[in-house]
Amino acid sequence: LDPDFTAKAADADAPHPAQRTLTGPAGTCWLWNGHLWHSGTRNRGDEPRHALLLNAWRRTPASEQRPAELSAATVDRLGEAALLLL
Q: Is the pTM value of this prediction over 0.85?
């Protein structure tokens, strides 16, 4: 465990030293790599905050988005019930 955990946890809402907050007038567009750490923040203003979020992926699906490639021997060994779970 981090020896300073208690001190850090006491101020969990404090901004991270390297944190960058993005703000802009209506119509502003932000683009960022979704693999970066990111989150929303509390709306401290009087007006509602609206956002339109779009995601884009490569045409070829990432490994976690496509079925696992199993050898014929593995398919034979697992049987139909196990394959349905996969």
A: no
